[in-house]
Structures are given as structure tokens and as C-alpha cells.
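for the recovery benchmark. C-alpha cells below, seq after
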């Protein structure tokens, strides 16, 4: 394909307008579409406000700001939006049927060479594309929020995504000044969300079994330098969001990913975290104060790290991504200073296996059992040199 200079973004919400702005800053012309004028104008307003902030901070100059604003073309005309670009980013709500219907509608009126890139954070690209004729032109491009600040984009290969489509999406992300990583097998939740998912299983299990309280776990994490504890962050994201993602992973990955009891109870009561003023914490007076002196001694920070390593090992075993790309994704997408593979270089693998087996047995969670590759071929997990 010729070099792409124009893209379309479907959906002007938080992720959509963020992707649009990243494309503008990468020198691209952007057609931004939404079904409602209010949503579209709100997205445009946020892009302009963000550009003004970057300008005031000296991050962009007058000419670049003017060029970005001139290159943004908001529209409520679906046909106009999707037929003007060879590459379309989709950033609509995480509802599979909605995405599938949108892709069918787009395919019916665009060139057969048009590439569709979904910003889904969990769903299999193959499922999104399953009703299309040109499945080879569908790829995942999972950006992280806030898009303008976060560098990572997971570029995901569906079962029928072509090499060319993968490379075009990868190169376009580079042009947008992002850090793309290749997800070579279409596994739900991809890299970052997949590696972090069993941590919720671990900590949810500890809370459900009343081994430690949420505040005691968060106190331990903050004492060890984490900017936010797990349960405070859960409140911030929204407990309903985590509940929905747990239900999805329960269906497509393993029953252990089902929302844990304490989370389900709060969602049922309507205590959804910061957005409702109450979740695991009371947010009525602002961000909760967590006393690090209340930290638990029933959990080790190394247990959390070990669970991440174990899930990373499963991704390597399944051929989802390389050790180097997993570490790059975790550093770029979470703010971790070191990836789980590099962090555990030189560990005693037998000790790690025994600890994982103990956690799995104590919490009755099969997904915490050690990956087969840690037992059968651990050297394949810890190879980072010369991979990228």
C-alpha cells in the first residue's frame, strides 16, 4: 500500500478523540465520525483543548497546532467518513454485536483494500471480523488511555489478518509517535490486560476468603512505592467496568476470571467506585487516604509479580507474543519500570513453581497454577536478547 496520509476514526468518545489527536500529531488528516452531534462536538472540543495545553507547555509550536486543527474533519455523515480514508480506526463501545454490525456496514461501501483497526481492549479480532468477506484487512490496534500520553499500542493479528495489514498498522502507529508491539495470536485481553488479569483473581480471592482486607492490601502496595493500590485503582476505573470485563474473561478464558464475590456485591448495590462516590472506599471527600501502617503481612509483593510472570509465560507458551514484546508492552502500557520477564531473570524457577502451586491451592484458583513452560522449558521464557 502507498503511505497512508489520511485516516478515519469511528467514535468520538475518550478513546476515539484521543486516537484522532494522536493521528493529527503524527501529521495525518483525520475524519472523525460519531452518530450524535453532541458527542462529536464534545470530542472535537477536547482535541482542541488538549492541543492548546500542549501549545502552552511548549510541546508543539504555533504552526503544528494550526495544522492539526486544519487537518481535523468532524462529520455526522457515515458514508463520507468511511470512504475518505484507506485506514479506519474503530473506537465504539465494547459490544460485540455493535462492532460486527458496524464492520458489515463499512465493508459494504468501502474499497476492498480499506483496513479496519479495532481499539477493543479484550475482544478477539477474529470474532469482530467473522462476518466479513475481507477478514485479512482487519487488525487490532489497542491504544491505552489517555491516548495522547500513553505510548503503547497493541497491534493484534486476527486468525486471518494478513502480514501486510499487520505491517501497515504497525508502521502507522510509529508514524503516530506510538510504541507498537505485535500480538501474533488472537488471544482475548492481548498482553497488558491479560498479564494483569490474574492479579485480580489473586487479590479478589484473598479478600473473599478474608485473608486480608482491601485497604490492607492497598496499604502494602503503597508502602512498596505503587502510586495507587489495586482496590483504589478499581474504584477509579469503575467497578462495573471490571465486573463486565470479568464476565467476558470468564466466558472466553477461564471460569476463575468471574467477578469475585466482594466485587459482585458492590456492583449489585450500585456502589461502583469514584463515579458513584462509593466503592471499596468512600470518595465523597475526594481521593481516600490509605494508611500504610495498616499493610497486610499475609501477602508478599513478590506474589503479585510472580502471578504476572506466570501469565506472561503462558502468553509465550501460546505464541501470543515474544518475551521482549511482553516486557515492552508492560513497561509502556502500565508505567512499570521493568517488565515481568526481565524482573525475574535469574530466579529459582523451582521455588517460583512451588509458590504458584501454593497460591493456587490456598485460593482454589486453577489459573494461578504454574504455566507448563515454566516446568518443561523455562529457558524459553527468559530470553530477551536479539528478539525485536
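predicted aa per position
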Amino acid at each position: 500500500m502507498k503511505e497512508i496520509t489520511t485516516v478515519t476514526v469511528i467514535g468520538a468518545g475518550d478513546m476515539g478523540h484521543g486516537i484522532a489527536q494522536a493521528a493529527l500529531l503524527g501529521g495525518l488528516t483525520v475524519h472523525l465520525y460519531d452518530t450524535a452531534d453532541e458527542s462529536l462536538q464534545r470530542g472535537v472540543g477536547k482535541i482542541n483543548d488538549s492541543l492548546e495545553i500542549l501549545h502552552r507547555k511548549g510541546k508543539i509550536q504555533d504552526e503544528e497546532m494550526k495544522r492539526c486543527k486544519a487537518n481535523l474533519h468532524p462529520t455526522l455523515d457515515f458514508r463520507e467518513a468511511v470512504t475518505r480514508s484507506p485506514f479506519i480506526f474503530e473506537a465504539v463501545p465494547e459490544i460485540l454485536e455493535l462492532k460486527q454490525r458496524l464492520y458489515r456496514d463499512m465493508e459494504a461501501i468501502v474499497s476492498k483494500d480499506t483496513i479496519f483497526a479495532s481499539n477493543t481492549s479484550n475482544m478477539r479480532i477474529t470474532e469482530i471480523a467473522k462476518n466479513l468477506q475481507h477478514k485479512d484487512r482487519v487488525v487490532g490496534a489497542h491504544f491505552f488511555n489517555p491516548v495522547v500520553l500513553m505510548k503503547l499500542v497493541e497491534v493484534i493479528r486476527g486468525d486471518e489478518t494478513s502480514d501486510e495489514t499487520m505491517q501497515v498498522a504497525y508502521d502507522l502507529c510509529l508514524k503516530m509517535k506510538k510504541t507498537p508491539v505485535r500480538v501474533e495470536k488472537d488471544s482475548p485481553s492481548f498482553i497488558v490486560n491479560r498479564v494483569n488479569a490474574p492479579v485480580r483473581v489473586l487479590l479478589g480471592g484473598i479478600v473473599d476468603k478474608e485473608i486480608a482486607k482491601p485497604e490492607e492490601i492497598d496499604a502494602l502496595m503503597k508502602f512498596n512505592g505503587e502510586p495507587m493500590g489495586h482496590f483504589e485503582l478499581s474504584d477509579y476505573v469503575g467497578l462495573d467496568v471490571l465486573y463486565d470485563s470479568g464476565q467476558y474473561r470468564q466466558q472466553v478464558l477461564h471460569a476463575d476470571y468471574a467477578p469475585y464475590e466482594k466485587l459482585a456485591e458492590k456492583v449489585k448495590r450500585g456502589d461502583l467506585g469514584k463515579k458513584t462516590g462509593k466503592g471499596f472506599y468512600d470518595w465523597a471527600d475526594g481521593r481516600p487516604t490509605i494508611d500504610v501502617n495498616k499493610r497486610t503481612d499475609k501477602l508478599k509483593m513478590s506474589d503479585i509479580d510472580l502471578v504476572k510472570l506466570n501469565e506472561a509465560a503462558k502468553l509465550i507458551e501460546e505464541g501470543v507474543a515474544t518475551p521482549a514484546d511482553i516486557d515492552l508492552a508492560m513497561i509502556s502500557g502500565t508505567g512499570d519500570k521493568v517488565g515481568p520477564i526481565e524482573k525475574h531473570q535469574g530466579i529459582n524457577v523451582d521455588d517460583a513453581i512451588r509458590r504458584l502451586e501454593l497460591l493456587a491451592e490456598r485460593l482454589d484458583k486453577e489459573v494461578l497454577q504454574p504455566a507448563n513452560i515454566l516446568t518443561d522449558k523455562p529457558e524459553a521464557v527468559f530470553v530477551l536478547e536479539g528478539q525485536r
